[in-house]
Amino acid sequence: MKNCKLISVVTLLFMGLSLKTSDTYCPCHPPWVAFNQECYLIVMQKMSYQDAEEHCLTYSRALRECHLASVANDEEYDFILGLAVAASVDTSGLWLGLNDRLNALDFVWTDGSTSSYRRWNAPNQPDNNNNCGRTSANHDYKMSDATCSTKLASVCKVRQRNV
C-alpha cells in the first residue's frame, strides 16, 4: 500500500496537483491519476467522440468498465480541468462522456451515470446542432456540445481496483 501511495504522490507532484488518496483503494498506475476512488487518463491522441469512447473501453477490466469520463460535481470537473491543463491539452479541449445522440438535448453519460451535473457555457449551450460534450479553453473551460466527428483529446475514467 505504501508503494501505491508513493506512485500517486509522485505523479501528482509531477503534474503540479496535490490531492488526498484513499486508504481503501490502491491509487492508479501512472500515467493514470487517482481521484475519489476513480482513475483518470488524459488521452492526447485526437479522435472523434466514438473513437475516443471505444479507446477508453479498451482499458476495461473484469467488473470495471472504462468510459469517457462522467462528472458528478464541481470538484471532479475542476480535477479533470487540472489534468487537461497539466497535460497541455490544446484550447479546442477534450471529450467528456456526455452526449445527446439518442434524443436531442437529452444529454446522458456513456458510463450510465445518473449525474445531472452540467457546467454549460451558457446561454448558448447546449445548442440543438451538435451532440457530443466537451470542455475547452475556447469556452472558458465550461462544457459545450460539439460535432461528434471533431477530433479532440479525451479523458477516460475507470473505478480504482479494490485491494
TrEMBL record:
Keyword Signal: yes
Signal sequence bounds: 1-22
Annotated C-type lectin domain residues: 35-157
InterPro entries: C-type_lectin-like, C-type_lectin-like/link_sf, C-type_lectin/snaclec_domain, CTDL_fold
Keyword terms, alphabetized: Signal
Pfam family, one: Lectin_C
The keyword Signal belongs to this UniProt entry's keyword annotation: yes
Transmembrane segments: none
PANTHER family tied to this protein: MANNOSE, PHOSPHOLIPASE, LECTIN RECEPTOR RELATED
UniProt-recorded name of the protein: C-type lectin domain-containing protein
The species this protein was found in: Patiria miniata (Bat star)
Species classification: Eukaryota, Metazoa, Echinodermata, Eleutherozoa, Asterozoa
